[in-house]
Structures are given as structure tokens and as C-alpha cells.
Amino acid sequence: MAAVPSSVLESPDRPWVFRTYSGHSSAEASNELYRQNLAKGQTGLSVAFDLPTQTGYDSDHPLARGEVGKVGVPVGHIGDMETLFREIPLGQMNTSMTINATAAWLLSLYVAAAERQGVGAGDLSGTTQNDIVKEYLSRGTHVFPPEPSLRLISDMIAYTVDEIPRWNPINICSYHLQEAGATPVQEIAYSFANAIAVLDAVRDRDDVPADALPKVFGRISFFLNAGIRFVEEICKGRAMTELWEELGRERYGVTEDKLLRFRYGVQVNSLGLTEAQPENNVIRIVLEALGVTFSKRARCRALQLPAWNEALGLPRPWDQQWSLRIQQILAYETDLLEYPDLLDGSHVVEARVGELKIAAKEELQRVLDLGGAIAAVENGYMKQRLVESQSGRLQAIESGEQIVVGMNAYRETEPSPLTEGGGGSILTVDASAEQEQIDRLNAFRSQRNSSDAEAALKGLRDALANGDNVMPPSIRCAHAGVTTGEWSDALRAIFGEYRAPTGVVAREAGMADEATDKVRARVRAAGDRLGRPLKILVGKPGLDGHSNGAEQIAVRARDVGMEVVYEGIRLTPAEIVQSAADEGVHVIGLSILSGSHAVLVVDVLDTLRESGTEIPVIVGGIIPEDDARKLEEAGVKRIYTPKDFDLTRIMDEIVDVVEEAHPA
Amino acid sequence: MSWRRRTLPDPNGAELAARLRDRDRTAVAPALNLVDDRRPNAREQARILLEALEAPGVQDKAVRIGLTGAPGAGKSTLLDAMVRRARNRGESVGLVAVDPSSRHSGGALLGDRIRVRSGAADPGVFFRSMAARDRLGGLAEGARAGVLILGVAFDQILVETVGVGQSEGEIADLVDTLVFVAQPGAGDLMQSMKAGVLELPDIIAVNKSDMGPIAERTASELEAGIGLGVGDRKGWKRPVLRISAQEGHGLDGLEAAIAEHRGWLADSGELERRRRRGRDRAIEESLTLRYGSFGVEALGGRVRLTACLADAPNEPGARLLARLSDQIELALRSGTSESTP
To answer: By the 8 A CB rule, do A548 and B116 touch?
Structure first.
């Protein structure tokens, strides 16, 4: 056998774990999807839970209405968890669960389900996302206030480090910061501030001996985003790798190389995926995937790619398969894994990494000076900076300074065979899924031993009151048939609930372009005619917490001279209608990304009508064309989807809507 | 099914006033919209409405409490807790929150109700956000009208402003009891003391007192500041309370202090004086806004204005304002000044 040339690795690297973020309708349907995906060569699972599960409500709770099975799988109890992993050997699986506020509960259900498969907790491997800071900043599925949330996280870390040693108890997410508008520097700084908050909290626990801290440090993993500026993304990954090692050595006294490694998973950017000419998204996804795999030194451990049609609606199995094939081609067909780091020695990369590190350290220090990540959530600092960055990004797209092919440039297109025929290019969740899930939940409740469940819940409450670790009593609750809503209610009763600052006090951009001035003048004129300034309510009905879009609408409405009541997330139709009437607004703007628009928007319209309140409603979100038509028929005045990037035009049309409602 | 338009009748001030006095909740939003409306006909109806609401005895029921303090001090969290507690006692609550307007665009982001979730769909709670409009950091002209309207329909009125600039002075005239919410950490506190805004509050609440030594130091500094005579007045000894709005600590004490202050106001005759001062300030402000200092000169200057106000201690503010406006307009039209006293 010939000697291997020195430029090539002796044996190719093992590929990263291939995942697809998926789950919908029911545990049964999702289990079938998972088994299909594994058969196609996927090497790990990434579970998407529905919003009631993520925010701790049973499927029959009023706030769950319209949301059951929409953005993920509903898991209400041990029975659902067992069904979800039926015929999937958990001892051999690497499972990532996107779960945060209720992470301790879903991990308990997972452990219990594994035990019933005959697999001990010690043999499990995977990840719970469990990052509450980014929920406050971007994703909005938080439930509890910061302090008890941090306690739950550190409980899970303290528990898993001994009992489930191959588990990543937390994935510090810079992913959602980028979706919220973060620059690479902000991504690095805020996610590290977050990691420091968590690690400090674990360090300060009585039940974690000081010499266990390096091991804890070694279990902290990250979840990154990768945008289309893939060269910078490569540099970002390298900068984080270096900074993480420095942090471990300097702040936590970690010395072992293995424990200092920066380990991260990735979902590449959904923010930049376009609704216009959606086929182009495949190219974007490929380049973004390259950004997190190209540099061996900073290569991701696990990768999940979005589907090309995410801006249109829910992807179908075939769409997800296409994304899995991208990973397989990159790992198995190209020669990427045969080389050592391809960028070592590049002066350009080294310089860029150095710049990012310096800027990120400065911003990190600013957050630490404010009292750390939690304080910078509570006083709104980080959120305001993110909202500002996002406004800047959107303005650059609107002005054409930042080119998005097919959206604000090169818009001429042949008819796309991929989206022809309308409606057929996305997945529609069966409308009966919600009721079926509720029926199953009721059947489960009636069959369980309710005194066992009550005793287990009492044990949980006692443990929480005593300050004991939440995990052991939660696993007992899982076995005893406690439901997701019951477990969460027990915690809500003790910890209370929390609403995070919104960041919509962000500094004004002070736009002075002609189009903006024109809209500003129209807003003023309409206000003069109506006797008082135009007032708009912006809010999100349902459980979807992705507030970035709603915030941008609110900020821009303020910038064109409207008085904006920003109502935030997780609202019931009744709350929205009372607020709108009490506040005396001229128009209501609703934002929904979870696919529950069909139910929730119609509920708002009905409630308005019942209360005799005549206020026009506009809606923004990921709304397929067929649904948009139905909503317009139901009375919605305007509908905006991701292709409507021109916020100035939206503002102009809001004035139209108000004028139509108040003819001269 | 569709949004067919009904022709809404023009708002009628007298009718709205009658419905408010019957505590008809559905009259509150239209009344607030009316007093905000700058069109001539609406102005006239608003005057009729407010005059009716200022009739003797009408404003006696509600307790008016103001909350002020720097951003981040926890005003909204405290507001939320106070609403919850009032509702548990069976009291209805009307809230006004004032946020600054943008100098550049004239727009405003009114984001506070997001943190006050108690009663988001509860008819016993009414929340109106207001923009400070052209007067940065100050109270909206409509805030006083808002307090009058809510004061008829609800048991407890809470007014919240960001404590910057002149807003404390204005809020102090609108409410019976002004609570300054201080946050632990001395930086902005010394600033407040220098600016003299601490002279206005009736009660000082140091929030986040669970922060321990920092909170205690802040409270001590405030006590010392008051002890040094930063505005001790007329027999009301202003308490410095330690609270935690988030944890619910110290709120019994805060409510007791508010009740005690209210009792003192009533017994000492200060309540009446204060409300009259609020009326006078609002009239002066409105006249200046409408006619500028030139208009006030046409009336005979500040001295004459003050005398006019003092001469009519019991006249409803809305009527007095209308009367003085007529005088100014007359003087401006005839080009003469009634400057002789």
C-alpha cells in the first residue's frame, strides 16, 4: 500500500450527525416520519414539539386552541413519548429536542420512555435545547421568570452530568439571536454571556463540587446559525472555538483539551430564505451548510438543514429529503472530510477571526458590566440592540443596498414548475389532528391511576419547595402518568410566569428618504382628518413567540408617526379585542408564524363582531395563498407574507386601510 | 359577515357623561377618544363631557395614585401587582400609562401594557396608553381628562410615567398620592436628588429590595436625603418603603401608606387644594399650548391669569378653560389687551 500523501488525513473524518428538524400532528404520525427519515440515511433525530408542549399546556387548554400539532408534535404524557419512539432503539439514537421552558419535563418523559424500552438513562445520548435567555430575546416560549428558569437549567446540568453523562443538557443558542437580527459580533457576545450565566449558576450550587466544574464545562454545547455570508460564518465559528477555550481556561480553570472543545450543532439560516423564487433557497442552503463544515477546526457536530419552501408553509417529507441529500452529498461525495483544516495559515481568515474576537469581547464585557445576561434581558439592553440590528438589516434590503436575488433584485422569472398548481407544494396539517389529540389525552387521563399521578405531583411540589433537584420527582411524575399541563401548572404555581421586555423602545432610525417622508405626511394628514393621531395595536395571538416581525412592524409604525400599542405575544382573541377597544386604536395588526392563523385570526374577527367593535384587521405571517384568500373572505383587510419586505409600502397601505374604514 | 360600516352618531358629551356616571364601561373608550379629538365639534362635546364630570361630588369616589421612576425601576411590575391585589379585593381599576413621543416622527411606542397582564381580558380593568405628544417626557394633555373619565367609572386610578424631565411635576398634580419607585444602585438616585424631583413624591418605594445590601444602601440614602429636609411638608412625613414587586414583598405596607396618605389629604384639606392646583395647572398649560405666551399676555399676563383662577375656586376646569379661551380670542380679535388689572 502506497504511503499516504501528507496533505491528506490518514483516514477521512467521520461525518457530522445528519438531522432534520421535524414533527407534526401526532406522536403516531411523527414516529412514522422519523422511521422513514432514518431509513433514508439520517443519523440523528431532531424533535420539533408543538407550541402547547413547549409552553406547558395540555392540548385541551384554551390557549392551545389552533396550535395543537402545528409546528411540531404534541407530547402530553408518557404515552405520547412512547409512541413517538416506537421501534426506535433509544440506546442507539442521538436525539436533539428543541425544548426549553419545559425541558426538564420532556427529558423526564424521554428517560421514562427509555426505561420502558429497557434502556437505562446512562445509555442515552442527545441534547435538550434548554436555553431560556434566547427565549426571552427571540423565540418567546419562555414560561417562568429568569431566576427559577436558571435553577431548572442548573438542576438538569447537575443531574445529567452524573446520571446521563452523554447528554448535552443545554444548547446555548446563538441561532435565534441571528434570526432576531444579531450581527456575528452580537451572536458571539450574547451567547457567551448566556453561557457564563449558566455556568456561574452551576458553579454556585452546593451539590456540584468545585472539581466537577470542568466536566460541566465540557457538557455545554452550542446551537449556531449560519447565514449566507459564509466566509464570515466560517470565521465566526473559528472565533467562537478560540474564545470558548480561553473562557474555559481563564474563568473556570478547565485544563483538559477534550473538555475545552467548542461543540456545536447547526440549523442553517431560515431568515434569509425567500418566498419569491423559492427554488433559489436550495443554493443558499448548500452555501450555508458549507460555512459550518468547511473548516475542520470549527466544524459542527450535528447539522440540520431547512427545506427550500419554509417561507411558503410547512415542508413535506420530500422537501426535507432534498435537504438531507445535501448533507449526504457534502459528506460522502465531496472530498471535504479527507483534509485537515483548509484555512489554517490563511492570513485573511486569521485577521477576520481576530477582529471578531476583539469586538465580541468588548460587547461581552458591556453585558457583564450591566450585571450579566439575565440583567441585560431584564433591562432590555440585548433585546434593544437586536431590534436595532434587525431594523438596519431590513432597511438595507428595502433600499436595495443588500441584494436578495429574486426578492429585491432580478425578480423576472419563468413560471416555477416546483410551485405550479398552487397549494400542492406544502404540507397541510389535517384539521382534525387537534381534536384527535384531545380525545387521546382524555382517554389517557381516564385510564391512568389518578391517585398515583396526584402523589407524584405532590412529590414534585415538595421537592421544588425544598429546593431539591427537579429531575428525580419529574421522572416519577412521567411514570405516574402526569400530563404536560399538570407538571407545568405545578411549576407555575410556585415560580410564577414571566413576560420579557420587548425591545421595541429601540432607538429611532430617523429615516429621511422620500418614500418614508411621503408616508409620514399621509399618517399626519389622516390623523388630522380623524381628529387624533393614527393609533395601531400590534400583537401576536396564540402561543407562537417569534416576535421579530411584529416588533419590526411596531418600530416602523412609530417611525412613520403612528402611536403604537405593542401588545406582545401569547394573547387570546378576547385580550386583543379588549385592548384594541380600550386603547381606541384605528387598526389592529396581528402576526402569526405557527400556522394557526386559520383558527386564531377568525376568532379575533368573531370576537370583534360579537363585541360590536369595528376596527379593521391586517395580518402578517407565513400564510399560504389558499389560506390568505379565506382570511380575506372572513374580513381581513390586508395580508402580508415574507415576500413583502418593503415595510414602507406596508405602512402606506395601513393608512389606506384606516381611510377605507373612515370614508370622508 | 363583512365589515359593513354603520354610520356612527357623533359622540355626545352629555350622554357619555351620564353613561360614565352609571359606570357603563362601554362609555369609557369613546369618552377618552372624544377628549383626544381635536376637531371643533369634538372639542365642544368634550367640554360638555368634562364639565359634567367635574360637577361637585362626581370625582369623589376614586383613589388616584401616580407611579413614577426611572426606566427599569420596576414600575410596570409594581403596577401589575397592584392591579392584581385590587382585583382580589373586588375593586375595579383604571390605568393610564404615558410614554414619550418621538421628536423626529411624532410617533410613539406604547409598550407598557405588555408587562401588566393582570386583567388583560377582565372588564374590571381598563388600560389606556397615551403618548406624551409634542412635549417630550411630559404628560399628555389628555392625561388629566383621562383621569377625570376613569375616576368616574373605576374605584382606583393608577397613572404611570417614566420619571424624566417635568413629568413628575405634572403627574403630581393629577393624582392624590405620588409614589416614586426607586431602584437599588445610587447612580440615577443622586441625579434625581439633584434635579429636585424627590421633592414631589408622597411615598418612596425602593423596589427589588431582595437585592440586599445595595437596596438597603439606596433606602438609607433616601431616608437621609429626606431627613436633610428635601421637601418635608405640612405634617406629612414621607415614608421610604422597601418592597419587591416581583416577589410581592412589602406591598401590604405600601398600600397601608397610600391609604394613610389619602386619609391625611382628606383631613388636612390638602386633597381639595391639590385637585384645584391640578385644575389650574392644566388650564394654564392648555391656554399656553393653544395661544402661546402672546395669548396669555392678551388676557393680561400671568398675574391676571392666576387671579382669574383664584377667583373661581369651584368652577369646573373645562368651563373655566372655555371662558378664558373666549376672553383671549376676543382680546386677540379686537387687538387690545386687557392689561389693566
So the answer is: no
> Does the active-site annotation cover A175?
yes
Amino acid at B197: V
Sheet containing A302-304, strands listed edge to edge, beginning at the edge strand earlier in sequence: A17-19, A302-304, A264-268, A221-226, A171-173
Q: What is the pLDDT of residues B216-267, one digit of tens each?
A: 888 888 887 776 554 446 678 889 999 999 888 999 999 999 999 999 999 9
Q: Is A662 a catalytic residue?
A: no
Q: Does residue A3 form part of some domain? A: no
Nine cell digits for residue A610: 360579537
Pick the CATH number of B11-57 from 1.20.5, 1.10.760, 1.10.287, 1.20.120: 1.20.5
In a domain, A431, yes or no: no
Structural domain harbouring A589: 514-661
pLDDT tens-digit map of B203-219 = 999 998 887 788 888 88
- Give CA A49 to chain center in angstroms: 11
- Topology of the domain covering B63-268: Rossmann fold (3.40.50)
Phi then psi for residue A47, to 5 deg, are: -90, 125
| Inside any domain, residue A482 | no
Q: Which chain B residue's Cα is nearest to A566?
A: B111
B117 touches chain A (CB under 8 A): yes
Amino acid in the structure at residue B320: L
- For Cα atoms A93, A96, A99, give the angle at the middle one, nearest 5 degrees: 140
For residue A486, is it within any domain? no
- Top residue of B129, B130, B247 to mutate, by most chain A CBs within 10 Å, is B129
> Rounded to an integer, what distance in angstroms lies between the CA atom of residue B69 and that of residue A568?
23
Q: Is B187 on the interface with A (CB under 8 A)?
A: no
Q: Among A399, A421, A452, which residue terminates a domain? A: A399
